[in-house]
Amino acid sequence: MPVTATYTIIPSGSTVSSAVIMTYAEQATVLFPTVTSALAFIEIAVDTTSANFARLQNDVGSGALTFALADGNKAFTLGEHIISAFYVRAVTSVAQTDNRTLTWMMRT
After folding, report:
1. Helix (H, G, I), strand (E, B) or coil at 79
2. What is the pLDDT of residue 70?
3. Which helix (H) or strand (E) holds 105?
4. In Å, how far from its chain's centre is CA 84?
5. Cα torsion angle, 14, 100, 85, 49, sign
């Protein structure tokens, strides 16, 4: 099973990354660089229309799946959540003070 890396950017002053195609991914991990302290959410959609993206829910279904971002790099495995996704993007709760390049590692 090959692993590929795709890179997206959350632009300075923004909270949303560009979308990544995950159509054939069986496993995925997202690596965040050092960011402006925030919460991160993962959104999925069947196409790239912004209005169609929906936040992933946590395992018990009581709220959005969130990742705490503070000082330093972070890596999060998306597990079984990613299997049904065609397009994925990351959203932060706070606008970033510089461009942030995210790395998405996918096993197909």
Report:
1. helix
2. 75
3. strand 100-107
4. 14
5. positive
**CA 57 to chain CA mean position, Å:** 13
Cα 103 to Cα 108: distance, rounded to the nearest angstrom:
16
What letter represents residue 27's amino acid?
Q
Amino acid occupying residue 9 = I
pTM given for the model = 0.81
85 pLDDT above the threshold of 80: no
Instruction: Provide φ and ψ at 81, rounded to 5°.
Output: -60, -30
pLDDT at 11: 92
| Residue 74 tokens, joined | 């972070």
Cα radius of gyration rounded to whole Å, the chain: 13
> Three-state DSSP class for 56?
coil
